[in-house]
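SEVERITY: medium
COMPONENT: batch folding queue
REPORTER: lab tech (J.R.)

DESCRIPTION
The queue accepted two submissions in a row. Attaching both inputs and their returned structure tokens so the on-call engineer can compare them side by side.

ATTACHMENT 1
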Amino acid sequence: MLLKIIVYTIVVYTIIYYICTMKTILHKANDRGSADYGWLKTNYSFSFSQYYNPDKIHFGMLRVLNDDIVDAGMGFGTHPHDNMEIITIPLKGSLQHKDSMGNLSIIKANEVQVMSAGKGIQHSEFNPSHTEAVELFQIWIFPHTKNVEPRYGQKEFLENNRINQWQLLVSPEKNENNLWIHQNALISRIKMDEKKDITYKLNNSGNGMYLMVIEGSIEMEEHLLEKRDAIGISETEQIKIKSEGTADLLMIEVPMK
């Protein structure tokens, strides 16, 4: 009996500890920065280009999460990058990539592209379709090592492999199952059926989690999150998520320092 009381007390105090120490920052979809350039419509989760919000510079090592819609036949001309890990995730349509390393490719929905800009690279991105807009996320993560040799990677991730389970897209590990970057960060995606519960556990202690709802709605730690809402979570080892209806989620786990 005494042992049961001790175990119960430990569990209760552990739960209270995580609840009291966990930090969250809510980024509602309609609070993002936005811009309409005619051929490009975009929403900025963090300060970018002409949008500046001193409270939204970055989340740990996550610097950029842009939600772009590029018109048919339009795109970004050749421009430079350096010392940034750049991840592109098309959601609908396709994007043509060309860079100074000689890479020429088309990235489609259910594919992911990574580019380690390192000591310097130039590239362009265009929508090759004559009729269909392309919708995509572009993510920038600060690297842990500067001035590395520029590098390119691209991989397909089957939708069936993320039904009610986390599908790892990007990690620090070099393997054939996912893409990798120069940072102790991980990017995962999941498609949840209606009324499902899922847990996300940190892979690296000291990291934070930035969760974006691509589609649908979820409940997370008493927050109701709907399409394109996001929440940053830190100082906890795991979170629990419940889907209201079906939901498509993107999780970005990054070092906070």
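ATTACHMENT 2
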Amino acid sequence: MSQMTGRIDPAPSRWAYRIERLWLTPMFRLFVRVGLPFVIVFAGTSIYFADESRRDMVVASYMEMKHSIQQRPEFMVKLMSIDGASDEVSEDIRKIMALDFPVSSWDLDLEGMRQRAMGLDAVADAKIQIRPGGILQFSVAQRQPAIVWRRGDGLEVLDPQGLRVGPLDARTDRSDLPLIAGEGADMAAVEARRLFAVAGPVVDRIRGLVRVGNRRWDVVLDGGQRIMLPAEGAVAALERVMARVQMQDLLARRIDVIDMRNPNRPTVRVAPEVMEEIQKTRAAISGGQN
């Protein structure tokens, strides 16, 4: 009788079957391929950096490497160039920047520097860039002087919009610019320039415009003559006066004040000596009639 040999069951065991089924699950495969390595690396890193001395060593190495990169010659700025600015404004920009060259471009806050340059009264706009060769380039647009403002504590030069350009030591330093005076005159500088443009026939006689009560203008002429303008429609009122000046040579007469504060009822105030002569003439005429 022949002896029967044992056979190997080809079917997988229960555990092998479960493992094969688990491996066919997409989430499990993702965990084994991505999640498990991440967990191992994270755990190893956490254990390594749990030691404070190791953390300090890594930080020190990083800072040293960062510093060595930032101090490379190709990142160094060696000088500053300023275009579009006067010598005085250029010097002011250099002072407020206070840069000690050479300096790494990584240490420069270009937008912050631009804002500091824009903080200067004379600077309307500024652009900053680092040019090849380690040059810090400022391109400046200055405010253009248009008018002089006399205020209580001195003189200021303003641009066409009434924005401050800078202080003025003496009126004679900018006698080529028209003069305005009074509190709040800078806020109405645009209207003032329109008034100067309208006053063409007598512009050479104008000493300046005075802001009254921060609401209206007086045109002050040489010889003490004054044109009082209304708070609203000042330009139109002055145009009416200039038309009379051209037609009747109004201001050539001995008139102290032309009051246009009420455009519907303009009045004229003559010089005191003229008024005295008029009264004497009237009296003489009245006496002769008696």
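NOTES FROM REPORTER
The first helix runs from residue 14 to 23.
No errors were logged for either attachment.
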